[in-house]
Amino acid sequence: MPVSPGLFERDLPPGFRYREDFVTDAEERGLLDAIADVAFADFEMRGVVARRRVAFFGQSYDRIAAGPLPGFLLPLRATVAHWAGVDSDAFAMALINEYRPGTPIGWHRDAPQYDIVAGLSLLSACRMTFRPYRAASAPPSPRRSATHDIVLERRSAYLMTGEARQAYEHHIPPVAQFRYSVTFRTLR
User: Which of these, 100, 94, 117, lies nearest to 50 by C-alpha position?
Assistant: First the structure.
């Protein structure tokens, strides 16, 4: 039987790690200054254009190289890799998402060619919710609801590994304020 979290513990899926103040105010300002020069593009998934805009670097979803990681992301990638306990080159791709107020990300599980997923919140906080993953080929079932959620604070980081990565899907409800996220992924 699962153990309930203690009074001051977060109830998160196994394999999800979270750290507040992952970067300092000064580091965030430096990242935001560099991101101001990034060219963003619309993101289309299954024929639908998302409300967020993106910039891909490294190994993209379709295994096509999207251009090298820019120099300003390399120190952040090294810090994230150290926290994850992997070599920094293991994080083969980076994605910067731009969220305008009201922008969500729908329920999804990251593409199967990726393993560890790490993310950093910049400029404002958001909520991330989780529910058990159900394959598209599974028989229909009643509407599912979120089983876990967390507020990803400004300048915080998370790691999704193991069960959190494979057995759950997640989504970001519409954000209240302009926000960026930087996501790194390792390949399987």
Answer: 100
Q: Measure the CA–CA gap between 127 and 64, rounded to whole angstroms.
A: 31
For residues 188 and 113, is the Cβ–Cβ distance under 8 A?
yes
The CB-side HSE value for 91 (13 A sphere, CA atoms) comes to: 29
* Percent of the chain whose pLDDT exceeds 70: 89
Burial class (CB in 10 A: 0-12, 13-18, 19+), 66: middle
What string of DSSP letters covers 8-56?
TS----TTEEEETT-S-HHHHHHHHHHHTT---EEEEETTEEEEEEEEE
Q: How far apart are the first and last CA of the chain?
A: 31
pTM, two decimals, is 0.88
